[in-house]
Amino acid sequence: MPSTQTPPIAGAAIDPPSLRPPIDDATIERVEPAALRARLEALKAEGYAMLLDLGAVDYLERAPRYDVVYHLLKLPPKIAGVSEIATPLRMRVLCGVSGDPPRLPSVMDLWKSADWAEREVFDLFGIVFDGHANLRRIQMPYDWEGHPLRKDYPVRGPARERAPRPAFVNKNNVQAGTPPSGRTLEALQEQVKRIREGDAP
Amino acid sequence: MSSQPLTPEIVSQEGNAMVLSMGPQHPSTHGVLQVMLEIEGESIVKAEPEIGYLHTGIEKTAENLFWSQAQTVIERMDYLAPESNSLCYALAVERLLGITDGIPERACIIRVLLMELTRIASHCVWLGTHGIDLGAISVFFYCFDLRENILDLQESAGGARMHPNYVRVGGLNGDLPDGYLAKLDAFIAKFPGRMRDLRGLLQANPIFQDRTIGVGVLSPEEAVSWNVTGPSLRGSGIAYDVRKAFPYTGYDTYEFDVPTRKQGDAYARFLVRLDEMEQSHRIIEQARRRLDVPGAVLIDDPKVTAPPKETIALSMEALIHHFKIVSEGFRVPPGDVYQAIESPRGELGYYVVSTGENRPYRVRTRPPSMYNLQSVKGLAPGNLIADLVVILGSIDPVFGEVDR
């Protein structure tokens, strides 16, 4: 059971994707959960044949709390030879989602590769994909509690009470160094004898 | 790692089918992978890989480290090609910082050199272990000898054989050491002969051909639908290579071909990887010629990189910058970015989100191995159990990356 012993990392109240113009090759689009399925179907029909990746981000203090991020790739129609490679197109669809648990429609029937990707997002973020045929944990053990990549999931486990130290470490030990008498061996033997007698139950 | 309970579709067996668990300690799984198989006699009806045995939470760990510290854990994902991880992450962070154009020319050349060396080293491990899976043990020694030369080069440049963390945000951790280029020249001279040996051992070998030709055929449509990238995609005839499609670190200035094959079977993927090693050699030769010109290898930006050690004793500002970088790292402007590179296994991508702090807010990996491995569900049915070993070998998964 995750504990709250370590304070969770502060979530972001800001929305980084909206803060600056895109700095990579992708076209970026934000869709509402209700319109997501229709939009992705349209993009698939448009030629975005590859669902390159499906990930999620937890913003914790933002509403909606999660972003599910779809990275799509459209391969140019003629890609057989090296000389004819036209630039493929990248597309990034972000979908904000909230709720307990957050729910989104599955796209497993559109792209087979969504199977493991959706299972991983479910496993690590607890976002449920309706219509997924086999939605179960993939990275964590099947009986795990909690979703580790959520921002309120603690980094450290619960603090354990310090295990009691074994009794002998608390006892008087042989003192090092030359004794005042100068007779090291005898002084040591005497010490050991004293300790043993003190130990006797 | 959810091996229990069994997946419903596998449990619902009928007729003569039986369920067999292959792994997670099977030697041909090259790591820890369990494949739940539904078999009828010797042939596979259904296959469901179970992953997660190596899950170490690298993405979560990275969120709690400085931008530069996160790179050290990220490099451990694909442990056969560590530089590809750190380069992709560094490129993503550089884009967020807006310093992509400021990376010194020499650093870009060395990055390309590292990427291609690591590609050859990674393919060497793949070829050696693939050979062992099929009973061709001598290939392994030829491959690992060649890889050892590359690891020596890595060690002399970055200080470590396996995870040198040599690529940094803003450039590289130091220039190439004395004597590096001589060793590199020796490697470049040695490579073609060794490649002839490797081809001679396997390419026309009738046993190897019997085991691989026509096994695990992946049609182009299936490959796209399963989201397969890299050599496995090109073995199915689709010439998608991130180095050509979305060039980074100056790949557009190098001459190389993207080898493809149409057959889509294990043998085609084998040939594509061998051709790729030769193309990598071609790029290395070109990069080597450009390396004669000296120059800086790290961007001169005290807000991102620590100043050189020599200046710290001489300049107060350098000391302050050094202290700030070491004690609290650098800050990255808020935003999100997706950066992809062509790793030896396919398109490796990082979706990095920054909220303006000195730590990444989220680092999402697009692991090529995971998506390639997923295609086993489509590839295995209809094949024999023994062929599953060939199929797994031919898609070359690395489990540090599949499970992260």
Give the overall shape of chain A: elongated
Instruction: Quote the CATH topology of the largest domain in chain A.
Output: Beta Polymerase, domain 2
Helix content of chain A: 10-25%
Radius of gyration of chain B: 22 Å
* Main β-sheet, spatial strand arrangement of chain B: 1-2-3
The CATH architecture designation of the largest domain in chain B is: Orthogonal Bundle
Structure description:
The complex is a heterodimer of chains A (201) and B (404). Chain A has three helices and six strands, in the order E-H-E-E-E-E-H-E-H. The longest helix of chain A has 16 residues, at 184-199. Chain A has two domains: 16-130, NADH:ubiquinone oxidoreductase Nqo5 subunit (Beta Polymerase, domain 2); 167-199, no CATH class. With 201 residues, chain A is α/β, with parallel strands linked by helices. With 404 residues, chain B is mostly helical. Chain B has two domains: 8-50, no CATH class; 58-298 and 329-403, Cytochrome-c3 Hydrogenase, chain B, CATH 1.10.645.10. Helix content of chain B is 49%, strand content 12%. Chain B contains 18 helices and eight strands. In chain B, helix 5 (105-133) runs antiparallel to helix 17 (385-395). Chain B is globular and about 80 Å long. Chain B starts with 7 loop residues before the first helix and ends with a helix. The interface between A and B is large, with 51 and 60 residues.
Descriptors:
heterodimer; A: alpha/beta; 2 domains; two-stranded parallel ribbon; 3 helices; disordered N terminus; B: mainly alpha; three-stranded antiparallel sheet; 49% helix; 12% strand; globular
Secondary structure blueprint with pairings:
The complex is a heterodimer of chains A (201) and B (404).
Chain A: E1 26-31, H1 33-46, E2 50-58, E3 66-74, E4 89-97, E5 103-105, H2 114-125, E6 128-130, H3 184-199
Parallel strand pairs in A: 1-4, 5-6
Antiparallel strand pairs in A: 2-3, 3-4
Chain B: H1 8-11, E1 18-22, E2 34-40, E3 43-50, H2 58-63, H3 67-74, H4 82-97, H5 105-133, H6 138-158, E4 167-168, E5 171-172, H7 180-202, H8 206-212, H9 220-225, H10 231-234, H11 242-245, H12 266-290, H13 309-312, H14 316-328, E6 335-343, E7 346-354, E8 362-366, H15 368-374, H16 376-379, H17 385-395, H18 399-403
Antiparallel strand pairs in B: 1-2, 2-3, 4-5, 6-7, 7-8
